[in-house]
Amino acid sequence: MDKITIIVPCYNEAEVLGDFYTAVTAATAGIANAAFYYLFIDDGSRDDTLAAIRTLAEDHQNVRYISFTRNFGKEAAMMAGLDYADGDAVILMDADLQHPPALIPEMIAHWRAGYEDVCGKRTDRADETWFKRTMANLFYRSMQAASRTPLQRDVGDFRLLDHRCVAAMRLLRENQRFTKGLFTWVGFKKKEIPFHVQPRAAGRTTWSYPALLSLAVEGITSFTTAPLRLTTVLGLAVSALALCYMLVVLVDALVYGDPVAGYPTLMTVLLFLGGVQLLSLGIIGEYLGRVFTESKQRPCYLVDERDGEKFDYAALHREVRN
Ligand code: UDP
Ligand code: MG
Question: Which superfamily does 2-223 belong to?
Fold first, then answer.
């Protein structure tokens, strides 16, 4: 009998949790030789999500949960899920039913066939705006070019992980998590299966354009140092150009005795150099910021309650001190 834990990060999902449980239970009922457990992570929801999870846990033996002390973000919620889940495999799934439960039997079939990381690959981004699609394209392209471990394209957080893969993921404790990159980084035998992203069952998405942009920057800075290399190349190129131009100016002045002039060129060069310098500083700053955040070594999340029991921070503190 395979034990499979379904990890569900939840932020303000009170409306859909009941439907989610029913839909997933129905979709998994026909799978032979497998017992399904649920691990809900309440990521500091402001609505009645925690109450809804507690009700589920009371009504069903196979429901466990963790709640956070505040909203730590989906990446942290997924990490907590991987930390606390047990069993032979886990499935990461959104609560809003955008990830079709009907795909689970196929995932499990692939896992039983020997794949250790089976993930859903979205086949249509048609419902998204042209702008969003173009930006996503650009992002994947540049990541592909910049890194040795290519990022899986259009692959979200809907995936099944073998318990070995989960154990490996637990080793990666960085604070600023770009989970998609981490899955790629750990390796293991991967299988992508296509699926259509469903419209949200209820509630609304928490992703805005600024949030997506910062995720992209996060992805790049946590995945590759190529931008730093780029600044070096940029610096070299600009220096080379500057040297050539210096010769031109010198020859002009010495041979032709050009009188002082050229305010426009002066201004152009000055502004260009200023721009390049600020850009390079900005890129360095992004990385420095990451080093700063990681160096504090704070935990990625704080658990408030686990299956009805308040988390004992005093005990943890005593343990760490001794
Ligand atoms: N989520 C979370 N913490 C957050 C934001 C979202 O745990 O701070 C959960 C949310 O409840 C859902 C999943 O992450 O189960 C995906 O979120 P959402 O549907 O808002 O993102 P989208 O599907 O638009 O990418
Ligand atoms: Mg969603």
Answer: Spore Coat Polysaccharide Biosynthesis Protein SpsA; Chain A (3.90.550.10)
